[in-house]
Design brief:
about 35% helix; Dihydrodipicolinate Reductase, domain 2; 10 helices; 2 domains; Rossmann fold; eight-stranded mixed beta sheet; six-stranded parallel beta sheet
Length: about 325
C-alpha cells in the first residue's frame, strides 16, 4: 500500500482551510468521501475537496469499506462517539483537538483504538513546527543550561456572535470548556513535548465576558518531574493576540515572540543569536503526512492517542484545581 484512502467527517472552517487542502497536496493521501449534515452544502464540499462522494450521515461514511482512515473535524462533543464507531469499523483515526470532553472519554477512545488495532492520532500540529523542534534541541544540548521555567502566553481576540458557525466553542455542553480547552490544550502539548512529564497542576480560571458560559481566561502553574516549572496563560477576547514562548535556563534563555512565525532568539554564553524557522503554510500538512506515514510503515504516529489523553488529563486537573464546573 502506497496511498491511504481518507474520509473526512465535518466540513467546517478547519476542514476547508487546512485539512482538505493538505490531503489534496499529499500524494500519499486520497480523499474518498466527506460527510456533512447540510445536504444543500454537501455537494459543494465534495467538489471543493475533490472527493469521490459525499454522505449526509457520518455513520454511512464509516460504513464505506473503501475508506481506511478518517479525520474527525467535528465539534468536541462528537469526538468520542465518532472515534469509537470508527475504530469498530476498522478505520484509523486522526482527531481534531481537544481530544474529547474529558479524560474519561479520551480513555474510551484510546481503549477502542487498541482493542480494534487501529491507529489514533490527535491534531496537535504545533508538535511539528520547526521552531518547536529547535527548542527541543536547545534544551537537550543544555545550551542554555538546565531549564528553570517555561512561560507560554496565548491569546485570541475573536468573540463570535451567536449566528457564527464556530459559536459552539462558547457552549460548554459542546466544547467542554473555554479557552483552555480550545487552544490552551495546544500549548500543554508543547510543554509536555519540551519538558516531559508533569508532576503537579494548579490553576485559576475566570469569566470576564458575561455572555458566555465558559472561561475566557485561565492561568496554569505546572511542575515537571525534572524540577522545572511551566506557566501557561490563555485568554479569549481583549485586543491583542499572543502566541509567545519564553524559556529561562541556568545559563541563558530562548524566546519566541510568535510561535506560528518561528522567529527564535537564543541568549547563552555564545552571545545572542536569532533564527527564523517558519512552519509550513498549511499547519496541518506535516501532521497529516506523519500520520499517513505511520499507517504506511506500520509505526506509531508522533502525536498519538496517549499524548492526547495526557493533555486531556492535565486540562481536567486544571479545571478541578480552579473549581470550574
Amino acid at each position: 500500500m502506497n496511498q491511504v484512502k481518507w474520509g473526512l467527517i465535518g466540513c467546517g472552517d478547519i476542514a476547508q482551510r487546512c485539512v482538505g487542502p493538505a490531503l489534496a497536496l499529499l500524494s500519499s493521501c486520497k480523499l474518498v468521501a466527506v460527510s456533512r449534515r447540510d445536504s444543500s452544502a454537501l455537494q459543494h464540499c465534495v467538489k471543493q475537496f475533490g472527493a469521490e462522494r459525499g454522505y449526509e450521515s457520518w455513520q454511512d461514511l464509516l460504513a464505506d469499506d473503501s475508506i481506511q482512515a478518517v479525520y474527525l473535524a467535528s465539534p468536541v462533543h462528537l469526538h468520542c462517539e465518532q472515534a469509537v464507531k470508527a475504530a469498530e469499523c476498522g478505520k484509523h483515526i486522526l482527531c481534531e483537538k481537544p481530544m474529547a470532553m474529558n479524560s474519561r472519554q479520551g480513555q474510551t477512545m484510546v481503549d477502542a483504538a487498541r482493542q480494534n488495532q487501529v491507529h489514533l492520532g490527535i491534531s496537535y500540529y504545533r508538535h511539528f513546527f520547526p521552531v518547536v523542534r529547535r527548542l527541543k534541541e536547545i534544551l537537550a544540548s543544555e545550551e542554555i543550561g538546565k531549564v528553570m521555567q517555561v512561560r507560554i502566553d496565548a491569546a485570541e481576540t475573536p468573540l463570535f456572535s451567536e449566528d457564527h458557525p464556530r459559536y459552539w466553542i462558547f457552549e460548554k455542553e459542546k466544547a467542554g470548556g473555554g479557552c483552555l480547552m480550545d487552544f490552551g490544550c495546544h500549548r500543554i502539548e508543547v510543554l509536555l513535548h519540551l519538558l516531559g512529564e508533569v508532576d503537579t497542576v494548579k490553576a485559576a480560571t475566570g469569566k470576564v465576558y458575561d455572555r458566555h458560559a465558559v472561561e475566557d481566561v485561565a492561568t496554569l502553574l505546572l511542575t515537571f518531574e525534572n524540577g522545572s516549572h511551566g506557566v501557561l496563560s490563555v485568554m479569549r477576547g481583549g485586543t491583542e493576540d499572543r502566541d509567545t514562548v519564553t524559556i529561562l535556563g541556568t545559563k541563558g534563555s530562548a524566546r519566541v515572540n510568535t510561535l506560528s512565525q518561528g522567529v527564535i532568539t537564543v541568549a547563552s554564553a555564545r552571545g545572542s543569536q536569532t533564527e527564523t524557522l517558519p512552519p509550513h503554510n498549511n499547519f496541518h500538512l506535516p501532521l497529516l503526512e506523519d500520520f499517513t506515514r505511520s499507517l504506511l510503515e506500520g509505526a506509531a504516529p508522533e502525536v498519538d492517542g496517549r499524548i492526547g489523553l495526557r493533555v486531556q488529563e492535565i486540562v481536567d486537573e486544571a479545571y478541578r484545581s480552579a473549581g470550574f464546573k
